[in-house]
Amino acid sequence: MPLLQGVLSHILSWTGLCQVLFVVWTLLGAVVVVWTAKLLVRHVWYTHRLSCFNKPHANSWLFGHLGQMQSTEEGLQHVDELVQTYKHSCSWFLGPFYHLVRLFHPDYVKPLLMAPASITVKDELIYGHLRPWLGQSLLLSNGEEWSRKRRLLTPAFHFDILRNYVAIFNTSTNTMHDKWRHHLAVGTTNLEMFDHITLMTLDSLLKCAFSYNSNCQQSTSEYVSAIVELSDLIIDRRQKILHHWDWIYWKTKQGKRFKKALSIVHRFTREVVQKRRALISQQRETETTAPQKKKDFVDIILLSRDEDGQGLTDEEIQAEANTFMFAGHDTTASAICWTLYNLARHDQYQEKCRQEVMELMEGRDRHEIEWEDLSNLPFTTMCIRESLRLHSPVQAVTRKYTQDMTLPGDCTVPKGAICLVSIYGTHHNPTVWTNPHEFHPLRFDPTNKEGLAAHAFIPFSSGPRNCIGQKFALAETSSRGGFDSAQVSSDPGGEPRSWAQLWGSSPSAPACPACRGEACGCRWSL
Known about the structure:
The chain is of the alpha/beta class. It has one domain (about 55-495, about 505-525): CATH 1.10.630.10. Helix content is about 55%, strand content about 5%. The strands form two sheets. Strands 1, 2, 3, 4, 7 and 8 form a six-stranded mixed sheet that branches. Helix 15 (about 315-345) packs across helix 17 and helix 15 (about 315-345) packs parallel to helix 19. The chain is globular and about 100 Å long. The N and C termini lie far apart (about 65 Å). GO terms for molecular function: aromatase activity; heme binding; iron ion binding. Keywords: Endoplasmic reticulum, Heme, Iron, Membrane, Metal-binding, Monooxygenase, Oxidoreductase, Transmembrane, Transmembrane helix.
């Protein structure tokens, strides 16, 4: 005891306290030095391994291209410069933290996107910020976990399921058209299309995913507002390197707003899933023979089973439902907006689309697009595809690999490096596309596609980890594109009104929800 008392009294004395603090700070300093040394060694190693790729001018050997990657119109113009200069690929690094290879040619993109899912990993630079919202969903999972979820979710996107959604698309589009007719009636000639169409896609997705009528196009919805805020906050976080670390971000004003919006979204999804599972269990117990409603997204994945008879847990279903809402609303809204914008700028194509739709509707009592009609709109489909090429809703996808990846020209991407497949760059590469910045739908005429490289057009990525919802997105865009061309062409007096007239005498590009700039196209990386 006397010895223990002596030690304690020494430690608690000023001299002892200073010694303890000195030891603590020395240990912390040693940890920082070791961490920094490992970071710099890793940086030098990746710089050496990536020397087979051309590297644009960097700000410094340490900070590299930090601050040069922008989600703005200027950022896309910079991508155009990279494509013009380097033709197929270049290396890129953001400080000593992230080492990337940027690729924008089909020959270099193909080996990466077609790599087996077993060696493909989603990186934390782009996808890590989504994890608090989307959990371990299909979008963010890897390996066998990803394979199992892909098998369980595939039935939810079968054609027999998607055909039931077309009526929902029509209903939501009618609501939006009613709003536009009201604006026209009171003399409005200019609308911010992205805001209206985003609400319309959210309205549809809520009905398709949850059979939930939010009425969000007519009144405010707490859940919808929270989704929009989360989307904006994720883009904002991606641009601020210090916010990439959770222990910093959650203490910021933006981090606190994110948590508040996140609690609203998670509470809504959790309640829907729990109620739906309870209803399904009750129906099984009572063996009810009452007519069943058409199954929505949550119903289908609740009933899905793997080869062992196991389904997804409530937590996993919530993650997939949240991903469906996140990935489906903003990207589809962007695709529809840009398609309408391009038609507004090209009267001859707009008129041809309208005539195609009107001929299809001829003789019908109700002018509504049906599932079978989607394959009978060849020119409208060409316009949609060309718009997806020119203004891809997703500008890039990123991947990491668990082994070295060999590319043409004796180039090798080392294990662990981030591969940024530039969809925008590939779609605007002049060595692949003639006059890539021009809107020319006939590029996608079936008779003209023979010379097109297999991975020249990748709006939904490609390979094993392509977008599982691409058929849903195309069905929604096609039905909206055709329906809009047919029905929003008349003012209250019945006179034809073109999209250019509705937008204004000189249509401007839809404003980006992230930077609020025009024509920036800064959409998601999925």
